[in-house]
Amino acid sequence: MTVPDFETLAHDIKLWAAELGFSQVGITDTDLAEHEPLLADWLDKGYHGDMEYMARHGMMRARPHELLPGTLRVISVRMNYLPEQAAIASVLSNPELGYISRYALGRDYHKVMRQRLKKLSDRIEQRAQQLEARPFVDSAPVLERPLAAKAGLGWTGKHSLLINHQQGSFFFLGELLVNLPLPTDQPVEEGCGKCVACITACPTGAIVEPYVVDARRCISYLTIEQDGPIPVELRPLMGNRIYGCDDCQLICPWNKFANASQEPDFAARDNLHAPELLALFDWDEAHFLKQTEGSPIRRIGYRRWLRNIAVALGNAPVSPSVMLALEQKRQQDDMDAMVLEHLDWALAQQRAGLAKIGRKTERLIRAVDKGMPTHARFEHDE
Length: 382
Hints:
Layout: H1 3-19, E1 24-28, H2 36-44, H3 53-56, H4 64-67, E2 73-80, H5 88-92, E3 99-100, H6 109-127, E4 133-136, H7 144-150, E5 155-156, E6 162-163, E7 171-178, H8 197-201, E8 207-209, E9 212-213, H9 219-225, E10 241-243, H10 247-250, H11 270-273, H12 277-281, H13 285-291, H14 301-315, H15 320-330, H16 337-370
């Protein structure tokens, strides 16, 4: 193919991608050399936590051409996922509900996007028979956000996520590595400026400096990636977030432009949109597997699911129903030791809250007996 042919092909690729439901497409080369020292420093500081796969392939993450020899270009795509009536704030503000990151309310995006990328590859091959291509959606050591930024899909925000001027950050990314010398797109101007809203809004202080996230403190990592116990000091900060966290995106001013996804596969499932914590906690493992079929949530497994909900129940308002549910769960013969430890913590939190209510009630009674103004009744509460 000649140079004009590749220019036409690049134009057509973007049209085909739009037909397949992608929100935007960009094309870039494979040079990520400037990101290698940043990746090495992040790994050296242990910010990847238990995600040993992040270090397993060394600098290959910054070298797509090593992942698929002969790769000349990366076709980077994004797909909006924010469901209609996302109800982020209303669920987060109700401690009796479980908050699930909005990306996980529908079908597993890995399968959806990979299938679409494969169809895009097939379409390209009809035009360029010499094509060698490989699609990726969080399925290989690839620095997807730097590639997407180079391809012009947005810029890297201070929370390390990609932000788009027109559509915020509620979207998935995917890549198609190809051996074709397609014309490349240009990066867009950074738009964060002096804003640090995402840094200050992070419940656990996981954004340790602009553009750098310590995964070990990130609620998404703690509820999804971490297999063992959640650090005790971070549990109270997690609130009712039981799978992932969207706080840094929720506060971002650019997300006022975020568009709801028109993809049916990403529509929120009723049982996950604004679920009651006690209802979720009542699921046995078989019911968990059934209710999360085709969902990304299933990959964390039942024990981590119970662990996460136990933490949320420990953070919930004092309730006899909550305490009874925790006690009944811990009495099960087959209860996992790691989960049991979180159940005990949650019960201790509930009992401490109950004791505090008792102390306040005693102070109120004493205040009434002494004729003190009731508005001063908790003046000296701890």
